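Tip: read the tokens left to right.
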């Protein structure tokens, strides 16, 4: 069974009380899988783009950094929940009939509020 590392389904539900992730995604397992994918993708994005290693750095984060990293994950979770995971899109905009550049997809794939939280904890540079 999958297990989250940084945020839980309860963290999500407490931060966004208007949405019950378990009910919305059908089961506890689906909700956990959603968060695990989110954590993995955010970690991969940061590690790949900013030459970091979250897994090694997280244990030595200050409480302030941990707080803002968790909030970044929560902001990214609601962004993906509401907008879908843009990072896996092909880039074809069906409404406009054109291909969106890969750079544009990367730019849109991380929530603006998550970027601010990552800046505060020193992971976005």
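Filled-in amino acids:
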């Amino acid at each position: 069974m999958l297990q989250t590392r940084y945020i839980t389904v309860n963290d999500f539900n407490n931060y966004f009380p208007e949405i019950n992730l378990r009910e919305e995604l059908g089961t506890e397992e689906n909700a956990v899988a959603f968060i695990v994918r989110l954590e993995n993708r955010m970690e991969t994005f940061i590690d790949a783009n900013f030459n970091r290693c979250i897994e090694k750095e997280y244990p030595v984060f200050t409480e302030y950094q941990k707080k803002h990293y968790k909030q970044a994950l929560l902001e990214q979770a609601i962004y993906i929940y509401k907008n879908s995971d843009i990072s896996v899109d092909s880039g074809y905009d069906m409404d406009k009939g054109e291909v969106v550049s890969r750079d544009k997809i990367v730019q849109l794939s991380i929530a603006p509020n998550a970027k601010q939280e990552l800046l505060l904890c020193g992971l976005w540079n």
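Strands lie at 92-93, 98-99. Residues 28-50 form the longest helix (23 residues).
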